[in-house]
Amino acid sequence: MKTKPIFLFILITICSLLIGTAQPVETWLTAGPLPVSKPGFIQGKNINGEAFEDKLLLSNSYIHLPDIKPTEGQSFPWMNTKPGNWRKQSVSEEEFLMIKPVKNADYQLSYHAFYVESDGLYEYKVDVESPQMFEVFLDGKRVASNDQVAEPEKTSSKTATLDLDRGKFVIVVKSMFKQDDENDWKLKATVKSDNDSKPLISISPECSMNIHHLLEGVKLGSVSLSPDGTMILINYSRVNTKTGTRKSWMEVKDFTSGRILQSFRKEGTTGFRWVPTGKKLYYTDADESGSSIWVFDFETGKEYPVLAGIEDLSNFQWSDDGTFIIYGVTETKKSDDKSSLKYMDELGNRTFRSKRETYLYKYDVASGVKTRLTFGEQGTSLNDISKDGKQIIFTTSKPNPIERPFSLENMYLMNLETGEVKTIWEDTRWGGYGQFSPDGKKLLISGGPDCFGETGRNIGNNPIANNYDNQLYIYDIATGDVDPITEEFNPSIGSAVWHPADNRIYLTAEDEIYRRAFVWDPKTREFSRINTLPEVLGSFSIAGKKLVAAYTGTSLGSHNRAWHMDLTNQVSKLFDNPEAGTYQHVEFTASEEWDFVSSGNDTIRGYFLYPLHFDQSKKYPLIVNYYGGTSPVSKSFGGRYPADIWAGEGYVVYIPQPSGATGFGQEFSARHQNNWGKTVAGEIIEGTQKFIEAHPFVDKERIGCIGASYGGFMTMLLQTETDMFACAISHAGISSISSYWGEGYWGYAYSSEATGDAYPWNRKDIYIEQSPLFSADKIKTPLLLIHGSVDTNVPLGESLQLWVGLKILGKPVEMIQVEGENHHILTYSKRIEWHNAIMAWFDKWLKDTDHDWGKLFPESEL
Predict the structure, then answer these.
(1) 721, 749: one domain
(2) Tens digit of pLDDT for each residue in 170-205?
(3) Average pLDDT in the 48-56 region?
(4) Which residue range is the domain that position 161 belongs to?
(5) DSSP 3-state of 854
(6) For the stretch 608-622, what's the b/e string if a residue is b when 16 or more beta carbons lie within 10 angstroms of its beta carbon?
(7) Strands (E), 678-738
């Protein structure tokens, strides 16, 4: 007697599993009703032979839905009527949302919204049912519509397909009611899934950060102050999500009020900078006649060319008084050789392009006379013009294939009145960049620790310096004396300005895991930190004739913003925050700094992010991210390896800063030389072990790691030395140091600082023993190799050869090529696919969720 009920129960269960989940939308956000009317002039048919119909009223785009992220109580402006609010509304017992029409309106619209949150790459269906006409939108894109009014006591339904990736998405249903409609104004929606995923439905836009936040919307770029400090030039950009193209533009704003004074959106205009005198901006524009330098004068409102029709115009600079311009013209070696045999002429020419060199010219603005300043076999690069306009500094470089860093550098001082040239240095192996002091008697030189030989080097017991660790020197032109002012200053120099207003040097620098601004006082010979607000500076600009600054920057959980500052009191004020709307409803996780003392008795800095909605009693998977090369991974927001997103996905993220990175002092950065991961791997392993021990909420069985470029090499190397990781990702990694050294376009050049004076023939212990390829048999960890198909920095073969080896060995490995991408994945759509693949791999091995990986790569054997 019980057989039939049991059978029916089993049958119903099986059917429910096959059908998937179905969730009615029970709570909505509603705005309306809002009166609309037909066009005032309806005459015959349109150009497509169509007569006007009511459905055209519904399809009209009244508001820009892609920008709509409704919240309860949010104002909803509507033409000339009183603004309404998005209000919370529940459905009836029949699961219909009931809408009460307003009186005296022949036609009226109502907008209804809810949010769907997806934790992976899922497809959902939304069934919408109503007697009235309606349209369904997913993040502003129409995905379904019904343009017919149902018969009395009937309804019509349409199904919208939602092909979602990770994130929270808004569904808006726009419904139209006609006054003579006999049916109640109502609608209902049901979200269905044909898999085991149950989407989260809500009326709250609050969410974790996802890849769309990072890539889409208006993005703030660099800032630059006018010489008098009254105006700020700001760069913005925005990606077109349909085409993937990115549009950039410039705006000039008033320093005090923030009011836009001028916007520059013309395609092809580049190189926007301030003329040193007056309120003038200059930029370049190119056409068939060549490049021209244009000036926009804010006092007169006029725009005019200054230097026109220059073919192959290169860098240029105005004199401080604005009377002349020093500019470069690039010349190409003539050749009529049409042979298919390409002769390799120089180490640096891997692309077989014709030899190109740049030479300097002087352009007198008043007379229009152009004077050539340099000539010869080696091209010349302008460094600076003296404040009095009498001298310039320029540099040359020539190949030197028999000795690292494989070029010889020269710096010269030219008297513009006499043409006399004085040599600052000649045929030195490590050069630098020079600027004049305000009085023109000294030079501020930026360069590596070897710029002046032993002078300024502070590398401890290490035999070779890391010349990526940028330093500052003051060079006395008359005596040739060198003052290494950063010898005891640990941060690595970025930009520097010797300011005429107070004769102090203002600079930005990598300072361990931060990027900060500092000022050096020649009287006290001390550096002091400038009190900028973000932990990681972006651009930093000081007015040329006034002590005010503008800067951008980020911190973990804090997107890019712009501030201005009075340098006399170091008070900052927020100036621009164009990305606020993008991140308005994003909930970020907490982060902490965490250091450990290594077995070598070194303090290794680091930081970590908690997972979103952290619960101390739970266990969480861990992602370890690192670079390991010569640069630290700063505590910045977003980026190509966005810790903020990973933490929002429920991962703990730990980022150590191993030995060899710049920003910690010359001795620390010099450890990078001739090491190639030997020390770094040990520190990452030790740091990860100690991090797990110190944080019991980390699941030690679910640890993943990821790195790119040198960090990709570290991922490969780590798997040959430990099996502590449950999975690993190497993006653009180096599997064989010798093949990268020879084949990478800049491999030999980078190796000159990573493997100084060590080569495959004299240091096989480095080139073989430290290369992951030669220890591939030791790898046990599931490894994902990702590589741009046209990577010129680290060739694709670096991942391919390790993939081949691991396949032959029967090891757990997968490889993905990102077609058409170089060392960085920059194309909008490919960036999203690349990110989704990374998250799918981590989810598969650290969360036991292989849905996304299987959807992306259904033929995967792992």
Answers:
(1) yes
(2) 999 999 999 889 999 999 999 998 777 778 899 999
(3) 81
(4) 22-35+53-207
(5) helix
(6) bbbbbeeeeeeebbb
(7) 698-708, 727-731
